[in-house]
Amino acid sequence: xxxxxxxxxxxxxxxxxxxxxxxxxxxxxxxxxxxxxxxxxxxxxxxxxxxxxxxxxxxxxxxxxxxxxxxxxxxxxxxxxxxxxxxxxxxxxxxxxxxxxxxxxxxxxxxxxxxxxxxxxxxxxxxxxxxxxxxxxxxxxxxxxxxxxxxxxxxxxxxxxxxxxxxxxxxxxxxxxxxxxxxxxxxxxxxxxxxxxxxxxxxxxxxxxxxxxxxxxxxxxxxxxxxxxxxxxxxxxxxxxxxxxxxxxxxxxxxxxxxxxxxxxxxxxxxxxxxxxxxxxxxxxxxxxxxxxxxxxxxxxxxxxxxxxxxxxxxxxxxxxxxxxxxxxxxxxxxxxxxxxxxxxxxxxxxxxxxxxxxxxxxx
Length: 364
Hints:
With about 375 residues, the protein is α+β, with helices and mostly antiparallel strands. It has eight helices and 21 strands. The chain has helices at about 5-30, 35-40, 45-55, 100-105, 245-255, 270-275, 290-295, 325-335, and strands at about 60-70, 75-90, 95-100, 110, 120, 120-125, 130-135, 160-165, 175-185, 195-200, 210-215, 220-225, 240, 265-270, 280-285, 300-305, 310, 315-320, 320, 340-350, 350-360. A seven-stranded antiparallel β-sheet has the order 5-4-1-2-3-7-6.
């Protein structure tokens, strides 16, 4: 190498080093942050949000509901998307939890995991009265990250909550808010009352349904289910089913393959007839032989010789808790297990009767 070339090489290397030194001085002097510096600029609340989203996102899934339709002229059947929502991985066996209304009417349900892989789901069971559906996918263990369960009874108004979902088909979106109220009641798709619902102002939009509501520790405290809004978009009033409610449903399906709720063994008088008779409570239309109500001597409606219809027992309380309609009766019975002894108060011919009844198992 000639002297001139050596000079050029030395100058080039020296200039590169000098420029690097100047850039470092400039970066430190003018606030171009390194990753460590960026972290120091975050508030503790921001760091908490980022960590929760990073930790829980792999547990959140995309739920697609498809249905079969026939083409107008050829009548060929084809499968088309019917709707979409969110769900999350419950355990390492591939159990997925979402809302019942997300999969309602589906011919097929597809689950897309965080890694982009899609699996057809098997329907494990549904609880329409709680707006909960349980699905299962056959995915590798490495692809399944179960969500960490919390305790919704520890919530208080004002506590921070975070929602992760797929609003408007925008996958894995985070919104943050607080618990606005506790103990709310909403109606399910089958018109049953869902009690002890969590109200939050964390944005819940179409597509968020079935997604997790998390506390500040990243633990599941609820399943986002619905909103109140005149436009259908978020208006700051969202609702979530408490995780403690879901935690009662899942073991029942895994152990029994169905909801395992105790029964009295009665058939309830239909609502139109109840209104006609101005019933205040739950009128029994008939009792089933061999089941608790029949064994206790309760009676349904009966017809006299002139073909006039008369009411039998009308249930007005269970363990002194008022019963105003079938919905409240079913909600009260959910508190008990088959085999529990309860006191059922009825009215018959304007007289009050009290029956001691041992609740039975539900039929298969």
